[in-house]
Amino acid sequence: MSVTSLEIACTVNGNSITQAIDVRTTLAHWLREDLALTGTKVSCDVQICGACTVLVAGEPVSACTYLAVDVDGKAVTTIEGLARDGELHPLQRAFVEKMALQCGFCTPGFIMMAKALLDSTPQPSREEILEHLDGNLCRCTGYAPIVAAVEQAARVLQGIKAGENG
Amino acid sequence: MADVGQISSSLDGSGEHGQGARQESGHAYVGHSVLRPDLLEKVTGAAVYCVDLRRSGSASAKIVRSTRAHARILAIDTDAARSAPGVVAVLTCDTLTGLCSRFGHIVADHEILANGKVRYYGEPVALVVAETEAAAADALELVQVEYEDLPAVITAEDALAAGAVLVHEVDLPLLDVDNLSPGEGAGSPEGGPRVDNVAHEVTLEWGDVDAAWESAAVVVESSMHFPMLYAYAMEPYNAIASYANGRLEVDSTAQHPFMVRDDLARVFGLPLSAVTVRAPYLGGGYGSKSYTKVEPLAAVASWHVGRPVKLVLDVEESIYTTRVDSAVVKVRSALDADGRFIAREFDIVMDSGAYADNSPLVIAKSVNRCFGPYRVPNLRVRGRSIYTNTSPASSYRGFGAPQGVLAGETNLERAAEELGIDSAEIRRRNLVQPGEEILQGKRGIDADLPADLEMLLSALKMGEPSNTKWYGVGFACSASDAGAFPVSTAAVRVETDGSVIVLSGSTEMGQGSRSLLGQIAAEEFGIELRQVAVRQSDTGSTAYERTTGASRTTTLAGLALQRACADALSKMRAMAAEVENVDIDTITQCPGGFSLEDNRILRYGEIVKKWFGASAGEVTGVGTVRRSGVTKQMPPFWEIGMVGVGCRIDPETGAVTVEQLATVGDVGFAINPQAVEAQDLGAATQGLGLSLFEELIYDGPQVVNPNLVDYRIPRMRDLPSRIDLMLAERRDGVGPYGAKGSGEGSLNPIAAAVVTAVARAIGRWPDRIPLTPERVWRLISDRTDDE
After folding, report:
1. Terminal CA-CA length for chain A
2. Shortest CB distance from B13 goes to which of A98, A136, A142?
3. Distance between CA atoms of B146 and B681, rounded to whole angstroms?
4. Are the Cβ atoms of B43 and A104 closer than 8 angstroms?
5. pLDDT (tens digit, 9 = 90+) per residue, B157-182?
6. Does the N-terminal or the C-terminal CB of chain B have fewer CB atoms within 10 Å?
C-alpha cells in the first residue's frame, strides 16, 4: 500500500507546526485550507503567474506546484508573516504608497518575491528588479508602480540598516 | 536594455501626491491622491476575496465538461461517480426539474447544465458534489457521457455560410433591451424557430453613403481582424452558495451582484428579496465578471444537496466560461482632398460563441464606437454578433470599442497616407469640438478632443529618439458612449459620533471605488476619511446598483452618493433647527456639523442624539440617479481615449518593443489622480498585450492555448522605457465635481496606435493583431525586394 500521508514538522511565520499531511496536498492548498492563511493566492495553477509565491527556507517557491510535505524541517514565510506588531514591512508600505496594486490578487506573490530579492540584494539595480520579478504577473497596474515600490522599499530598508549600524 | 519604466506623471510618488501638473482642486478630500484603505488590507493578506470564503458544512463542486464542440447527448451515466469515495451527489440537467434551467440577462439562452446537446467544447454537462475538492475531481472522470456528434461551426465565417448548422434552434425573446438601441430584437416573444446563427444585429445609418463614393478625392478600404482574447482576471470565477428554507445566499466574483440576483431569482422562482448575492473584493474583473457566470451552478448544487456548495474554476475552465468577442471589421471611408470625411461605412462581424451573454450589447456598442469622434456627414454601420460552437464571449473592458476603433483609426491613417496629410493634421480637420454631437440626438461630446490631441503630441515629441531607423510612432483616439443606463442608488448612515457609513451596490474589483466613494462622503460631510466606512455589493443590505461597468461608478454611483449626502445633511439641518428651536435659515453647514447664528457649532453626532433624545439613533440619507436631470440625455458621459506609442522593430526577428507610451485621461475631474493614472496605465498595458501577444487560438473544436504558459500577457520586462501619463481636467462631466469615468479609455485606441507605429516603421500595413514577431517578420520579409 502506498503512503498517503506523512507527518511533517516545520515553522510557518515563526510558529512551529507538526501535522500529518496528505502527500498530494500542495503547499498552497495546505496553507489556505488547513492553516487558513488565505493571503497566499492561487491563479494560473502552473507556476507561471507567481501569485502563490511564498518563502521556504528563505527561497521563493510557487506554492501551487510545491508539495506541502516538502516543507518538512524548513521555515515557511507567507504574506501574513511580514508585518511585525501591526507595523507594515517597508515593502508593504511602499506598495500602498506607490499604488503598486489595484485588485491585489497578485500582490502577496509580488511582495514575497521582492522580499527574496531584497534579502539577497539589498540595493538592486532597476535591471535586477526586472530580472527578478519578470516571472510575476499583474493584470491591473502595468508594472511601473511595482518597480517604483521595490526601489522605495530598498531605500527604506537601507536607511533602517544604516540606522541600526550607526 | 534601456532604462525601463521611467514614468512622467503628475505623481511620481515622492512627497505630496496629486500636485505638479495639476491645478489645485479647491477641495479637502477629493482631487487628492489619498492612500486607498483597501490597499492596506490587500498588502497584508487580510483582504477577503470570494475564493477565501468558507462556510461550515460546505461541500465542493467540480464540473464535468463537454469534450465535443457540438453534439447530441445520448446518455449520461453517473452511477460510478455517485458511488465514488466522498461524493455527495451528481447533477445533470435532469436534476433541475422544477427550476428554470436557463439563464441570461439579455437572452435566456444559457443552459445551466447542457440540455439535450452541447454547443461548445468545455460546456458544463454534469456537476459532481463531494466532501472535498479532491474527491470531486477524482470522481469527474467516472461520469460517462455518450455523444452523437453534430457538424460544428467554429468560426463566424462558417456560422454565416449558407446551410450552416444552427447553434441554437429556438429564437428566444430579449429580456433586457435598455441598452440595445439602436437595434432590433433578436427574437420574437413566443420564441419561434431560428433561421440563422446571427445572435444579434444592429445597424446605424445617416445621410446618403452611396452617393458619397463618387464625389470623394480618395476612397480607402481596409479590414482588421481582432483576436479572441481572455481577460485573465487573476482570481478565476468562483462562488459559494447556500440554499435553505426558500432562501438563497451566494457569495461570488460578480461585478454586478444585483443582476446576478435577478437571474438566480428567475431560476428558482424566488422573490428578489429571498435571494442575496454578495461580491467581496474581486481579484480583477475588466468586464469579464459582468453578469451571471458560475453562480447558478453553485446554487443548484446547494439546492439539490441541502448544504452550502463552493465551486472554484481554474484558468482553463474560466477561458471556457467567458472570453472576449473576436471580430472582423471592414471599413470604407470617403474623404475630400483636404482630408475631411465625406462618408464612412463599417461592417462588423463578431464571433460571440455558443451563448449570447452580453455580446448583443458589445456589438451595439461597437457600432456606436467604431467610426470615431469625428464629423462624419454620411455613415452606415452594420454589426452582427454570431453564434458559433466556441466558448461564449461577453463584455471586456471597452465594450466593442477596441474591436471597432482598431479598424476605424487604422483606416483613417491609411487615408492620411494616401492624401499626404500627416496623422495629427487629418485628425485636427475631423475631430469634433466640445459640445458637438457624434451620435445624432445623443449628448454632445463633453470633452475637448482637439486640446487632448495637442497634449498627446507634445509628449510624443519629447520622447522622440535620436535613432529612428526601424522605429515608428503611432497614436489614435476614441470616444465611447459610456456609463450604461443611468440607474444608481446610494445611502449614507450618520452615526451618533458623527461618523458615516456609505452603502453602495458598486463592486470593488481593483479600480478603487471603495476609496473613491469614501473621499466623496468625506468631502460632502467635511469629516476625516477615517470616519467614513464604505460597504459595497450586498444585495441584502447595501443600496441598489445596476452594474459595475462601462466606467460608470465615479460618475453615477458618485452622483447618487453625493445626493445621499445632501439628503442626510438636509435632514440634519432640519433636525438641528427643531432641537435648537431656531429658524432653519439661520443654520449653515460647516465641516463636521452646522453652525448657528450665535456661532455655536452643532456636530452631526450631537444633532442625532439630541433629536432622538438619547445616546442613540441614526440619520439616513438616500440618493438616486435615473434618466432625469443631468443624466436625462444619453449617454451619461463620453469616455475619451487618447494614446500614443513609439515602437522599435527588430528586423531580424520581427519583435516589437514599445519604447514610449503616452496617455491623456480626459476625466473632467480626477477625484484620486494617482488612481486615475494607475487605471490609465493598467488599461494601456492590457491594450499593449492584445496588440502584441494575446490571442486564444482554436484549432478544431478546442482552444490550443487555454493556459498562461501559452497565452502570453504583458510582463514586467515589456514595460515601455518612457511613460507619460497626463490628465485633462476641465470639469466638463455630469459626475461629482465635474468628473467623468475612466478605466477603459486608454485601452480602446491603443491597438490602432501600435499597428500604425509598426506600419510606419516597416512600411507595410498589418491586417490583424496581435503583432507577434512572426507576423511582423513576415511583413518585413515580403517587402525586402523593394528595400
Report:
1. 61
2. A98
3. 49
4. yes
5. 999 999 999 999 998 888 755 555 43
6. C
Q: ipTM value of the model?
A: 0.97
* Alpha-carbon gap: A141 to the closest alpha carbon of chain B (Å): 5
Which residue carries 487580510 as its cell? B46
CATH of domain A5-81: 3.10.20.30
Q: Are B376 and B334 in contact (CB under 8 A)?
A: no
Are residues A140 and B236, on separate chains, in Cβ contact within 8 Å? Answer: no
Fold for the domain defined by A90-165: DNA polymerase; domain 1 (1.10.150)
- Going across the sheet that includes B637-649, the strands are B6-8, B722-728, B656-666, B637-649, B471-482
**Domains in chain B with CATH codes:** 51-152+232-319 (3.90.1170.50), 487-626 (3.30.365.10)
Q: Which of A88, A99, A134 sits opposite B716 (nearest CB)?
A: A134
DSSP character at residue A89: P
Q: Using a CB-CB distance cutoff of 8 angstroms, which residues of chain B are in contact with residue A79?
A: 43-45
Judge whether residue B555 has pLDDT over 90: yes
Residue ranges of domains in chain A = 5-81, 90-165
Mean pLDDT by 10 residues, chain A (166 residues): 86 98 96 98 97 98 98 98 94 98 98 98 98 98 98 96 83
Helix axes A107-120, A90-97, angle to 10 degrees: 130
Would an 8 Å CB–CB cutoff place A134 in contact with chain B?
Answer: yes
Chains A and B form CB pairs within 8 A to the count of 178
Q: How far is residue B776's CA from residue A18's CA, in Å, rounded to a whole number?
A: 56
Cβ atoms within 10 Å of B86's Cβ, excluding its own:
17
Q: Interior CA angle at B729 toward B561 and B569, to 5°?
A: 25
B52 and A32 within 8 Å at the Cβ level: the answer is: yes
User: What pLDDT digit, counting tens, does each position of B329-351 carry?
Assistant: 999 999 999 999 999 999 999 99
Amino acid at position A35, single letter: L
* Nearest alpha-carbon partner for B341 in B223, B454, B207, B447: B207
More confident residue, B342 or B188: B342
Is B426 in contact with B415 (CB distance < 8 Å)? yes
C-alpha cell recorded at residue A8:
511533517
- What does the alpha-carbon distance between residue B35 and residue B158 come to, in Å, rounded to a whole number? 52
A:103-122 residues touching chain B, CB 8 A cutoff: 103-108, 111
- Measured between alpha carbons, how far is B754 from B157 in angstroms, rounded to an integer? 27
d(CA B289, CA B464): 39
E-strand ranges in chain A read 5-12, 15-22, 53-56, 59-62, 75-77
Instruction: Give the span between the Cα atoms of B662 and B475, in whole angstroms.
Output: 9
pLDDT for residue B9: 64
Separation CA B477–CA B460 (nearest Å): 14
